[in-house]
Amino acid sequence: MSQNKMTGVMTPILTPFNDDFTIAFDLYVEHAKWLLDQGIHYISPFGTTGEALSVTVDERIAAVEALIDGGIDPALLMPGTGLCNLADTVTLTSHAVKHGCRAVMTLPPFFYVTASDDGLYAYFSRFVEAVDSDQLKVCMYHIPPLAGIGYSPALARRLSTDYPEVFIAYKDSSGNFENTRAVIEAAPSVAVFPGSEHFLKQGLEIGGMGCISATCNVNPSAIRHVYDVATGAAAGDLEKLNSDMVTFRKTVEKYGPIPAMKGMLAEQREDTRWRNVRPPFLPASPEATRQLLGELQAASLTF
């Protein structure tokens, strides 16, 4: 693997809320530290899993500062910054750059689902000019099932060719492994991360750099172990480890990942605030959480 690329397992960290729906910064910092202790390489505040689009620009800035003030090395952070209007995207990105974050994870302007690659290129050219920093590093966040639009392999190639020091990574949450393969082939300088550990092993086999996965919030050490075994950094039965990891993911997915994982953390940490989600999400019930944990236990999967 290229030493010049980002590599590893990254968590798009859940955002905990108090009972009044303000961000619970104490839980946030505690969870970030636990993830790093479990072997996570990077943390990404305010991806889809972090309920980013239910959180204001000011709240997102305050949360990143809370992590840094709480002792998290900003070089381990990759905040989500992509919004539809350029000004807010620049504000969030400039804040992350100023505070020394490793990179930013940026959605395309997702409301504009008919935008062409040329239109998206024009948007991101203006974005680079507006941020105006040689420290700017971008992970292109491709999630068309929710955003309705994304970074095609051709656009990833064009951006990484014209701005090679800026567009350095790509998170593929399309669910289509052939798109992952196409981006790796089209933009070889870019660190490509499948958006699920389901494709972690497959991605590594063809030049991917790891994964950026929601379920890293609740199964971090197992996912890191698969990464280590797959890359030769540790020994183990890769097929069995990978199968167990994927089964864990599929089990959580059945219950609605964000409320389900928050319910799991509420149970594990005995703090009901972890159940809180901002509408339109609804929290997982204690009964649903117990059922989920029972399924994991029946499959001999630990949490």
General description of the model:
- The protein is an alpha/beta fold and 303 residues long.
- The protein has a single domain, classed as TIM Barrel (Alpha-Beta Barrel).
- The chain is 45% helix and 9% strand.
- It has helices at residues 25-37, 57-69, 86-98, 117-131, 144-147, 153-162, 177-186, 200-205, 220-230, 238-253, 257-269, 286-298; strands spanning 8-11, 42-43, 104-106, 138-142, 167-172, 191-194, 210-212.
- The strands form 2 sheets. The chain has a 4-stranded parallel β-sheet. Strands 2-1-7 form a 3-stranded parallel β-sheet.
- Helix 7 (177-186) links the parallel strand 5 (167-172) and strand 6.
- The longest helix is centred in the C-terminal third of the chain and has 16 residues, at 238-253.
- The relative contact order is 0.13.
- The mean pLDDT is 97.
Q: What is the CATH third-level topology name?
A: TIM Barrel
Number of E strands = 7
Query: How far is the first residue's CA from the last residue's CA?
Result: 31 Å
Radius of gyration: 18 Å
Largest sheet features: 4 strands, parallel
Number of helices: 12
Give the neighbour order of strands across the main sheet: 3-4-5-6
Identify the CATH homologous superfamily: Aldolase class I
Low-confidence stretches: none
State the name of the first-level CATH class. Answer: Alpha Beta
Shape: globular
Averaged pLDDT, please?
97
Proportion of β residues?
A: 5-15%
Q: How are helices and strands ordered from N to C?
A: EHEHHEHEHHEHEHEHHHH
